[in-house]
Design a protein that fits this description.
- By secondary structure, the protein is mainly beta.
- It has one domain: Elongation Factor Tu (Ef-tu), domain 3.
- The protein has 1 helix and 6 strands; from the N terminus they run αββββββ.
- It is elongated.
- About 6% of the residues have low confidence.
Length: 82
């Protein structure tokens, strides 16, 4: 066994990979939030659970005002999930 294979095996044994599902509520962890003139507010981050497709309505609960927004993206984006 090569040394690199040995280290790869050790990493696989000791790395936690969370189990995520496309079923259930859409949960999104926000990394960055910024405004783009003419586009509105853009949020980037990681999908933790669920899925979203282009033109889906999403509620941003952390704002505590019940703000609704629409998911949008490039034409190649069919849906987002982990």
């Amino acid at each position: 066994m090569k040394l690199s294979d040995f280290f790869l095996q050790i990493l696989k044994e000791h790395t936690y990979i969370p189990q995520r599902s496309i079923k259930g509520p859409f949960i999104f962890s926000v990394d960055h939030c910024f405004s783009i003139k003419g586009q509105g507010t853009v949020m980037t981050g990681t999908v933790l659970n669920g899925q979203v497709t282009v033109n889906d309505t999403i509620e941003i609960t952390s704002l505590q005002v019940g703000t609704m927004t629409v998911a949008c993206g490039r034409a190649s984006l069919v849906f987002a999930f982990y």
